[in-house]
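Protein modeling request. Please complete all fields; requests missing the sequence field cannot be processed.
Requester role: graduate student
Desired output: 3D structure, token encoding
Chains: 1
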Amino acid sequence: MLFALLLWEAVALIVSQPVLLPTPVSVLRRALLLPFENAFFRSVWYSLSRITLGFLGALIAGSALGALAARYRWLDILLFPFTATVRSVPVASFVVIALIWFTSSALSVFISFLIVLPIVYQNVKDGFLSVDKKELEMARVFRVPPLRAFRIVYLSKIKPFFLAACRTCCGLAWKSGVAAEIIGIPNYSMGERLYMSQLMLDTVNLFAWTLYIVLFSILFEKLFLFLAEGLLKRLSRV
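Delivered output (238 residues):
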């Protein structure tokens, strides 16, 4: 990290054009001042709430569809074109199309949901398919109640797949959600702050907002994984 900052500082001094590449000191100074602006926390809450909503919605829908697709082969075949399309088509294409269907305020919710859904779906489906059929047969023979069988047989197998999907999708939800905001430019969003900084050639402000987006993305991932792992541990002990 220190080497990267020193390299950044050296290159910025050599370029000597703050519009092209500001120094890390100027970016840090600007980042420390941003929270004192009136619209800062409003912008953070705007993006955070919508990206979280899209992420959680995709998590619930993807888990449910993944479990059903593992049980019913026809559903997996039916959903394959959708998941393959979402994985291959650029986010910008979906954003432009979504602008026709939704208002700009709902854009980051929809795009975060759309990008996260197929990854959660695939991982949860793979988790269910990895369950040993012999263990299921043993649970039937000993007449283990369905909820207890799910906890003992399924949960331990699904857990690593589910957490892996969460680790991947936390960052993707933020990247895709903010990218949608940059194109849709909803008022008081973090994406709008990036767009306006670029429009005004305020590179220092652009880097400062980017720093906060990365920071909130990391904090969001750490907090969510902490809560998810804790919840799964409690469920496994019930």
